[in-house]
Design brief:
Blueprint: E1 3-11, H1 12-24, E2 29-34, E3 60-68, H2 74-83, E4 92-96, H3 101-107, E5 112-113, E6 118-120, E7 134-136, H4 150-160, E8 170-173, H5 179-186, E9 192-195, H6 199-211, E10 217-219, E11 230-236, H7 239-244, H8 246-251, E12 253-265, H9 269-276, E13 283-288, E14 291-297, H10 300-318, H11 324-351, H12 353-361, H13 365-383, E15 399-408, E16 420-428, E17 433-434, E18 438-444, E19 450-456, H14 458-461, E20 475-476, E21 479-487, E22 495-501
Parallel strand pairs: 6-7, 8-9, 8-11, 9-10, 11-12
Antiparallel strand pairs: 1-3, 1-4, 2-3, 5-6, 12-14, 13-14, 15-16, 16-21, 17-20, 18-19, 18-22
Length: 515
């Protein structure tokens, strides 16, 4: 069967609606591309999981509709579009001959040389003749990760250029097709674990491991209950989820272990580095086509600085004069220095009490009680001499939204003040005092377009005058609270999204609507 392609060039705001109209007229498929593709004016579009992209199409978009040879004529399609209110030019019509579509698709995927030795070779291609080549058999499929994207290449190059993998364990978080964990195993890595939220990705990764004759444990997050630590933690996702996962990923790094992060645009690197700063110092390892790979080693800077300080102190002591008077002065100096260091140490403990408590709250339950008891004893002694004030911990990862449901009242049941109710159940997962979070409620219409955003402070969403709830003090977990928030919604409201946050992002400091 022969096919026809109709190519329309339209503005950004018409691309989606025109595609829907063409599907109604019998189009077999619709694709949208940049009309300026392969020119200096070409502009990429990027989006983050969980966020609405700023733009849905290009300023000038090509909408390509595929019809069979017996479909409506160009004149009939143009007339139907005009009757529906579209003002578009007559499309370009192209004939599409019947082809071996499987073979055509396969021809678009050639072997990819990732590093000096690493190759990704689809099953229908022969492996390169180089005897030093390390070949991975990975076919394009439903899971992300064929080695062609710069972010995947960067991670694989990092693995190839660290030859001590043989004695290391690895965690690939957001494993997709499993290509990074499989590459590590082919390079001699020890035990490897891959985790992904997509069941299809886990199935694909397991199939790829069998094809490459390596053993990798691929799991869904709910199956990853051991929270094991690894010498190398790799996460090739995107900047937004990498920032959300910062506490969880850093807890999975073994002492002196490495973390490798990719899926980050150059302009996002500083923000990601700042997010991970409380746990580990990151730096840009390499850049490729506007994407960067960040890496860092847990505790490496501290160990090096400590060893350097010890060497300098020994060298200074060895060169000291052994005269009696100088010895006395030196001992007095050491004594005064020890006093000053003790004072500084106590001040550091005092000023970082909340940070220490935060880390203790994240420990496994088996040792959390012992650590909490020891910390509380020391803290009580300090607070006898210093003015201590209780500040609840502030960490959004402590909170889990168990239930969020927006009930939108029908027009006949609405009052002037209340048109909807947000039913909410939120749980503090930690055995610690945690500050109540802010909630960002985004109201959308039936097309998932944002109508309004409302920042809900604890006083806005917590139940009033309920026993055991102190808005100022916070929540002593583990505990759960349920609440109904009554509000006035826009007339076109049809859906919502809800996020837990503390800092107020700039885009919602002055929301377009407080309804």
């Amino acid at each position: 069967m022969a096919f026809r392609e109709l190519v329309f060039t339209v503005s950004e705001d018409l691309a989606e609606s025109l595609g829907d109209a063409l599907m109604e007229l019998g189009a077999l498929s619709i694709s949208v591309s940049d009309a300026a593709a392969n020119t200096d004016a070409e502009k990429p579009l990027y989006g983050e999981p969980g966020l609405t992209p700023d733009r849905q199409a290009w300023e000038q978009s090509q909408v390509i509709a595929l019809f069979d040879e017996n479909g409506l004529s160009v004149a009939e399609i143009s007339l139907a579009l005009t009757e529906e209110g579209f003002q578009v030019n007559t499309p370009i019509e192209r004939s599409v001959a019947e082809q071996d579509w499987v073979r055509l698709t396969q021809s678009q995927f050639d072997p990819i040389q990732v590093g000096q030795r690493l190759w990704v070779v689809p099953s229908w291609h022969e492996a390169p003749k180089d005897p030093q080549a390390v070949c991975l058999a990975v076919d394009p499929g439903l899971a992300f990760g064929t080695g062609s994207h710069p972010t995947t290449k960067l991670c694989m190059q990092w693995l190839e250029e660290h030859p001590d993998l043989a004695s290391k364990t690895l965690l690939d978080y957001g494993c997709g097709s499993g290509i990074l964990a499989i590459a590590a195993k082919r390079l001699g890595c020890g035990d490897a674990l891959g985790v992904d939220i997509d069941p299809q990705a886990v199935i694909s990764a397991k199939d790829n491991a069998l094809r490459n004759e390596v053993t990798v444990d691929f799991r869904l997050p709910e199956e990853d209950s051991t929270h094991s630590q690894h010498d190398v933690v790799v996460a090739n996702i995107l900047a937004n989820p990498l920032q959300v996962l910062a506490p969880a990923l850093c807890q999975r790094i073994a002492p002196n272990g490495h973390i490798v992060l990719s899926g980050i645009l150059e302009r996002q690197a500083e923000e990601v580095i700042a997010t991970y700063q409380p746990w580990i110092q990151l730096h840009v390892w390499r850049e490729c086509d506007g994407w960067v790979c960040l890496t860092g080693q847990l505790g490496s800077n501290t160990s090096e600085n400590s060893a350097s300080s010890q060497k300098k102190t020994l060298a200074k002591d060895d060169s000291s004069d052994l005269g009696a008077s100088k010895k006395v002065r030196r001992y007095w100096g050491i004594f005064v220095l020890a006093i000053l260091m003790a004072v500084v140490f106590l001040q550091i403990i005092y000023l970082s009490r909340q940070t220490l408590a935060l880390q203790i709250a994240k420990m496994p339950p088996s040792i959390q009680a012992i650590a909490t008891k020891a910390f509380t004893s020391i803290d009580n002694v300090l607070c006898q001499y210093l003015t201590c004030k209780e500040f609840p911990l502030r960490d959004f990862s402590a909170w889990a939204i168990e239930l969020a449901h927006l009930k939108i009242n029908p027009p006949q049941a609405r009052s002037s003040q209340v048109t909807g109710v947000l039913e909410l159940q939120i749980r503090n997962k930690w055995s610690a005092l945690v500050a109540w979070p802010n909630l960002l409620l985004t109201i959308t219409d039936a097309n998932d377009q944002v109508l309004a955003e409302k920042l809900l402070h604890p006083k806005d969403w917590l139940p009033q005058n309920q026993e055991g709830i102190d808005i100022e003090k916070g929540s002593q977990g583990p505990a759960e609270v349920a609440s109904n928030v009554f509000m006035n919604l826009p007339d076109a409201a049809a859906g919502f999204r809800l996020r837990v946050l503390y800092a107020i992002p700039s885009e919602v400091q002055n929301p377009t609507s407080n309804q």
